[in-house]
Amino acid sequence: MTSEDKSPNSEVAWPEDHSRREFVALSAAASLAISAGTASAAEHAHARAMHVVEKDVDIQTADGTCDAVYIHPATGKHPGVIIWTDIFGLRPTFRGFGRRLAAEGYSVLVPNPFYRTQKAPVIEESQIAAFNFRDPANRPKMAAWTGPINKAGAIESDAKAHVGWLDMQPEVDTDRKMGVQGYCMGGPLVFKTVASQSDRIGAGATFHGGGLVSEDKDGTVKPDSPSNLIPQFHAQMYIAIAASDDKTQPDAKDKLKAALMASQDPKVQMSTVVVYTGMAHGWTVPDMPHGPDGTPIYNKTEADIAWRHLLTLYKGNLA
């Protein structure tokens, strides 16, 4: 296991396109990025080389119909990946993550985790920048979104449906393991997916995952802590922790490392837990609201470093 695995070399970010729901990433998309001044030469070349197809889909689960977006290279079979969103759910930013990953050669499913409450988007993108997590008026909204997914077995049931759906798609190589990644509240959803679908998930990543280690006031790990699922893992993990979260819960990283090292699976023992120095919770998500002092939470340079490590994880475990 490694605890520090960062490099100053950053991965270029795929340009976001917030206007289209059906998308093919061809040279035209690169030209659009050029005119907007948001893409590098490497991105333009990548867009010209990789054909990426995006479509909205519905997935039947035990609790109803989950709306999602499915993005994959236009030709061939590729490893499947599930992306769990943050508290703001399925929206253009996470469609952008899906396109970026599909352009690397993966068939990507981004489900709406809040489908039991309402179809995506649960919040308009224009409202996110001004969203105040400390505003009491916003707490009922967040509770309505997350309440159903916090019920015992809900995410495990969804994960089974999503993995099964991906395995039925002609663009998914079922001879290869799948990956799963999650952001903020999506961190525990990754743990539940890796544990419940351990026969299919070969790699998992969390970025500023919230509540991976649930503790009582005396520091005792609670029985329902996501970290207690680690003995069921058969996947290599990359757990990227924000410095702000580490400051709030400094022993969480050590408990995660210990649990991963205690695994009987050598692949799990090779996992990485890393604190990103100076980063605030949410630093990898471009449309994250600014902090209470008005400074941006998103940090492109450090987000690109995290993305590079994600690709390394997937290339090493989903081949």
The assigned CATH architecture is 3-Layer(aba) Sandwich
> What share of residues is helical?
25-40%
Q: In CATH, what is the class?
A: Alpha Beta
Low-confidence stretches: 7-40
How would you describe the shape? Answer: globular
Number of domains: 1
* Proportion of residues in β-strands: 15-25%
What class, by secondary structure content? alpha/beta
CATH-defined topology: Rossmann fold
Rg estimate, integer Å: 18 Å
Number of helices: 11
Tally of strands:
8
The average pLDDT value, as a whole number, equals 87
Largest sheet: 8 strands, mixed
- According to CATH, the homologous superfamily is Alpha/Beta hydrolase fold, catalytic domain
Keywords:
319 residues; alpha/beta; Rossmann fold; 17% strand; globular
Structure characterization notes:
This protein is an alpha/beta fold. A hairpin with a 2-residue loop joins strand 1 and strand 2. 46% of the residues are buried. The longest helix has 18 residues. The radius of gyration is 18 Å and the shape is globular. The chain has one domain: Rossmann fold. About 11% of the residues have low confidence. It contains eleven helices and eight strands. The protein has an eight-stranded mixed β-sheet, sandwiched between helices.
